[in-house]
């Protein structure tokens, strides 16, 4: 914008002068030096006397619209700056640059707020298997912060083992009925993502033949696709099914078939055979045959798996694993549809790139608007700092693993 002239008065004839207070005139015979103006007279200058201040007309002036030529820069916290830079570099796979940056940073920031930089470096050493560097840092950390450092755990190997324990855990919530589209769609999407899915049915309180038919269909599809669904909560489901099965009453056929499937998985051969005979008599059709190779492993006593450091990981969690690149998390919305809070387990997550973190933010922002709580559980500190950079901390809380 072009600046206009500031405070320019109009021509004299266009102005209305303010009245002057009366003053004593100099005696007529007072001599005035030749060539002198009235301003140079020894007579005191007249004072303006404004009878009514509201009568002033400021329209005589045009004020400049130009702004001062300066700007103020917000002060950036050096710890924040270095943590964010390290997180972005790590997300891009530039581990050597991350190590150099953090090793220099911990030499400078050996006080309270800088501890997060030390935690990032500890995790970097764990993820890259650098035990000697980790132990050296432990000594410096104890001296600087006067408390015990994190314990060593080599995360450079064994990721596959952790992933195997936690991959594809899903809790079936609501009723096992044919109209529960949300839950069944979520199972299908989770099965597409994970070749092995642990499906926990312990919270099911009601079922019908339609729900059993859909579950049996999912189990058959998984077998054909060489995928595995491990059913948990088998005793709970079996108790519900036994109430629906009555010898001689040819109703709820799918409930009979689901009960036969459970007894097959649990290795209950005699109970399977008894039920098969009753099924044949009731429906006048041949029953399924016993298949010894399909007997499942015993169900875990507790519905909770533990990672190697002793932290509990709920099988109900949505798991992030390994090194995630260019992911859109298409199945997360379905998972969140039947879970509150939405628990995202990051124990087995090594790294997530910037694009995937942004996509995760988009999905979780929509979920958060529905009023659900979102929790990230046990991410490493490098990933957690990236969550802060992209804005995920605004929609979710973070729980770190114990040392």
What does this protein look like?
The chain is an alpha/beta fold and 403 residues long. Among the domains are: 62 residues; 127 residues, 2-Layer Sandwich (Transcription Regulator spoIIAA), CATH 3.30.750; 93 residues, STAS domain (Transcription Regulator spoIIAA), CATH 3.30.750. It is built from 13 helices and eleven strands. The strands form four sheets. A four-stranded parallel β-sheet has the order 6-8-10-11. The protein has a three-stranded parallel β-sheet with strand order 1-2-3, with helices on one face. Strand 2, helix 7 and strand 3 form a beta-alpha-beta unit. Helix 1 crosses helix 13 and helix 7 crosses helix 9. The two termini are 59 Å apart.
Determine the strand fraction and express it as a percent band: 5-15%
Sequence stretches where pLDDT stays below 50 over 5 or more residues:
11-51, 53-68, 158-167, 301-314
CATH topology name of the domain at 168-294: Transcription Regulator spoIIAA
- Portion of residues within helices: 40-55%
CATH architecture of the domain at 168-294: 2-Layer Sandwich
**What general outline do the C-alpha atoms trace?**
elongated
Query: What structural category characterises the helix and strand content?
Result: alpha/beta
**Largest sheet, order of strands side by side?**
6-8-10-11
Mean pLDDT: 79
CATH class of the domain at 168-294: Alpha Beta
Number of strands: 11
Largest sheet: 4 strands, parallel
The termini sit apart by 59 Å
User: H/E element string?
Assistant: HHHHHEHEHEHHHEEEEHEEHEHE
Report the radius of gyration as a whole number of Å.
Answer: 39 Å
Supply the number of helical segments: 13
